[in-house]
Structure formats: structure tokens, C-alpha cells
């Protein structure tokens, strides 16, 4: 009976969200309402560190002997910092915290209070290395496109601060290190880690992103894989609650990233990517943001039932999910770049809060 009540409630909610998506949009799908976004860096390096598309200048060897020792030392330190920053940027560190939190939530769900510190450390370490490898390969494969886009024109390979050869060696070294760490957990975790690297680096970057308008939806599998890796690290298998968490992440991804695609529509068009707002218009994209958010909230409710999560998770889902929904409704009404960024940040806040609530519910309560 409880499942029947839950199913009825979820069906009613789904109908309301679908109707709301149509009611909020009065523009035709092709109508443009968002102004072009100003350059707003979501990468890990600011453009102020160096001029875009300008290679670093090497010191003049003939002038070096006349420079004070302190000046030469300062130059070496500055070059080392720039190089270190460039290699860190290749790993896309801003992606790491959320993806590692996904894996941590899956491990907490699988093990509860019996979760071992060793498993957590090894799994998250392998995850960080896998994310770094995937990000590095993505930088290599998209370096020419990055030069055409304002948002990415200052990436290390786009400005030739790191050579392609060095980046590939770095990426493969991270991938091998990730595989070695995951193997210390179990074979399934290692296999899923390898799949995650290959999927993001090859399937998403080379096949999905430049060729299909569904790139964001299908690419959500890359973000969902850490949930399976975290579950497999504890259990050595893939079970229903772990799949439930992966589905939540998969559905959340379009509701999250379509906001960024709206804000950077012109940039993605310059890059030649068939993002949803470029191909089908902004009104359709806003509607899909709302619908995928509704699907995410429904999946989150189903996960609560599957994993028997408690009141902290329920409160986080309702409260922060409500804030996310408010931001998306505001996006439909305002139709501005600022509203798109507000919804984007609300999506991050929602998922981060819900994942933390899962960890607390599973480990403490």
C-alpha cells in the first residue's frame, strides 16, 4: 500500500511539472531572449593570469647574467607556479568535489556505519586520478575548439602553455595511477573507473558532444558512474540502491548543465557544438530544465524509499529542491543570463546538499 500511495503521488507531481513547463513558456521555440553572456570563467584558471592565446615568454639567455640572483630566482618560482597551475587546470579540479561526493554518498549507502576508512580513501583517490585523466584528455581533444570560445580560450593547451605530448603523458600517467589504486579496492571498481575515463574522454568528447543535440543527456552517464563505482567499492557488485543514486545524477545533469548552455549559447555556437539552445531554441531548453528537474525530484523520492533514508535526506530534498525549483521558475519568467547562472548555482547547491544528507543519514542515523 505505501508503494501504491507513493506511485500515485509521484504521478500527480509529474503531471503538474509537465503542465507547468508548457504554461510558463509563451515564446516560440526559436525565440531568442537571453543576451550573449559576458566571459564568465567556470574553468579553474582566470584569464588574468595570462593573456589569452599568448604563449609564455622565455627569458633572454643573454640578459640573464646581468639580472640579480633574487630576480632570477623569482622568475623561476613564477614559471614553476604557472606550470603547476596549468597542469592542475588540466585535471578540471572543480568537477572533483561533486563527483567525489557522489561516490562517497554511494559508499555510505552501501556500508552504513560499517564503512571502512581505507575503502573511502582508496576509492576517492582513484576517483580524483580518474577525473584528472578524463579532464586532461578532454583538454587535448578540444584544444582547437577551446581557442574559438571565450569561456575556454585561456586553457593551457589553447594558449600552448602545455604541449600536447606532455599533456598526453600526464593524462595516461593519471589513468594508470587511477587503475592501480582502484585495483587495490576490487576489480569491479577498477573496471568501472576505466569505463568512466573512456566514456568521458572518447564517447562524450569525440562522439556525443560535437554530433548530437542529446549530448548533455547521454553525457550524464559520466557523472552517474561515480555512484556505481562507490557502491561497487563496498559491495563488489552493482545493486538497486546504487543504480537509484546513479539515476538521480543522470537526470540531474541536464537540469544542471542546460542552464550553462543557455548562458553560453553564442559561445557554444562559435565552437560548433549542437547544444539544445543552439539547435532547438531557448524556450525549449528552459522547458527541458524544468522537466528534468521534476524527473530528478521524483527519482530522489524513489531513492529514499529504496534505500530507506531518513528525515535529514527528506528535509534536504524538499527544502533545497524547492529552492532549485524556484530558481528554474524565475529563469522562465526573467529569461536572462543572470537567471540562468542563478539556476545553475542552485542546481549545484541542491545536489551537494542532498549528497551530504545521504552521507549523514546513512552513517549517523
What's the CATH C level? Mainly Alpha
Indicate the low-confidence ranges by residue numbers.
27-32, 35-65
Distance between the termini: 26 Å
Beta-strand share of residues:
under 5%
Quickly count the domains. 1
Radius of gyration: 22 Å
CATH architecture: Orthogonal Bundle
| Averaged pLDDT | 85
Oligomeric state as shown? single chain
Order of helices and strands: HHHHHHHHHHHHHH
Structural class: mainly alpha
Tally of strands: 0
Helix content: over 70%
**Major beta-sheet overview:** none
CATH-derived topology = Tetracycline Repressor, domain 2
Give structural notes:
With 365 residues, the chain is mainly α. It has a single domain (18-26, 93-363), classed as UbiA prenyltransferase (Tetracycline Repressor, domain 2, Orthogonal Bundle), CATH 1.10.357.140. Helices cover 74% and strands 0% of the residues. It has 14 helices and no strands. It has helices at residues 2-24, 69-90, 93-111, 117-141, 143-146, 164-183, 187-208, 215-235, 240-263, 265-271, 276-280, 282-307, 311-334, 337-363. Helix 3 (93-111) runs antiparallel to helix 4 (117-141) and helix 6 packs antiparallel against helix 7. The protein starts with a helix and ends with a helix. The model is unreliable at 27-32 and 35-65 (pLDDT under 50).
Amino acid at each position: 500500500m505505501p508503494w501504491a500511495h507513493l506511485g500515485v503521488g509521484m504521478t500527480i507531481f509529474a503531471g503538474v511539472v509537465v503542465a507547468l513547463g508548457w504554461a510558463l513558456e509563451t515564446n516560440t521555440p526559436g525565440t531568442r531572449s537571453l543576451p550573449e553572456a559576458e566571459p564568465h570563467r567556470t574553468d579553474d584558471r582566470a584569464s588574468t593570469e595570462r593573456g589569452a592565446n599568448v604563449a609564455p615568454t622565455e627569458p633572454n639567455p643573454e640578459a640573464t647574467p646581468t639580472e640579480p640572483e633574487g630576480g632570477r630566482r623569482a622568475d623561476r618560482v613564477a614559471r614553476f607556479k604557472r606550470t603547476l597551475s596549468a597542469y592542475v587546470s588540466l585535471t578540471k579540479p572543480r568537477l572533483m568535489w561533486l563527483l567525489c561526493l557522489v561516490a562517497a554518498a554511494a559508499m555510505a549507502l552501501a556500508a552504513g556505519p560499517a564503512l571502512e576508512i581505507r575503502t573511502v580513501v582508496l576509492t576517492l583517490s582513484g576517483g580524483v586520478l580518474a577525473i584528472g585523466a578524463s579532464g586532461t584528455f578532454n583538454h587535448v581533444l578540444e584544444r582547437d575548439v577551446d581557442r574559438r570560445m571565450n569561456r575556454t580560450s585561456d586553457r593551457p593547451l589553447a594558449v600552448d602553455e602545455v604541449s600536447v605530448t606532455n599533456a598526453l603523458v600526464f593524462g595516461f600517467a593519471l589513468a594508470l595511477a587511477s587503475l592501480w589504486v582502484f585495483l587495490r579496492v576490487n576489480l569491479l571498481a577498477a573496471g568501472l573507473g576505466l569505463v568512466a575515463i573512456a566514456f568521458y574522454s572518447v564517447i562524450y568528447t569525440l562522439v556525443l558532444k560535437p554530433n548530437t543535440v542529446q549530448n548533455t543527456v547521454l553525457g550524464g552517464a559520466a557523472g552517474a558512474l561515480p555512484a556505481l563505482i562507490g557502491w561497487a567499492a563496498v559491495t563488489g557488485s552493482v545493486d538497486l540502491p546504487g543504480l537509484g543514486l546513479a539515476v538521480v545524477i543522470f537526470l540531474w545533469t541536464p537540469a544542471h548543465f542546460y542552464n550553462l548552455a543557455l548562458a553560453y549559447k553564442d559561445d557554444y555556437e562559435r565552437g560548433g557544438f549542437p547544444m539544445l539552445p543552439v539547435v532547438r531554441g531557448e524556450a525549449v531548453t528552459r522547458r527541458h530544465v524544468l522537466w528534468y528537474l521534476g524527473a530528478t525530484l521524483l527519482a530522489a523520492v524513489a531513492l529514499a524509499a529504496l534505500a530507506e533514508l531518513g528525515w535529514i535526506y527528506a528535509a534536504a530534498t524538499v527544502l533545497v529542491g524547492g529552492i532549485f525549483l524556484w530558481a528554474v521558475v524565475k529563469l522562465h519568467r526573467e529569461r536572462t543570463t543572470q537567471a540562468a547562472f542563478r539556476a545553475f548555482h542552485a542546481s549545484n547547491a541542491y545536489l551537494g546538499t542532498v549528497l551530504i544528507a545521504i552521507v549523514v543519514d546513512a552513517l549517523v542515523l
